[in-house]
Amino acid sequence: MDWRVILVLSPIIIAASWALINIAGAALNQAQQFLNKES
To answer: Of the chain's two ends, which shows fewer C-beta atoms within 10 Å, N or C?
Structure first.
């Protein structure tokens, strides 16, 4: 694999993983709030 491919893809992968972590955290918070309202 060419190092230029890694150089181009690394910021995209970092941004995508950061977004997924943020979305997962927000989803977990919403799920916890929903479960707390139910009980």
So the answer is: C
How far is 25 from 32, CA to CA, in rounded Å? 11
pTM, two decimal places: 0.63
**Residue for token pair 């941004």:** 15
Angle, alpha carbons 9-12-17 (nearest 5°): 120
Compute the distance between CA of residue 5 and CA of residue 25 in angstroms, rounded to an integer.
30
Residue pLDDT tens, the chain, 39 long? 799 999 999 999 999 999 999 999 999 999 999 999 976
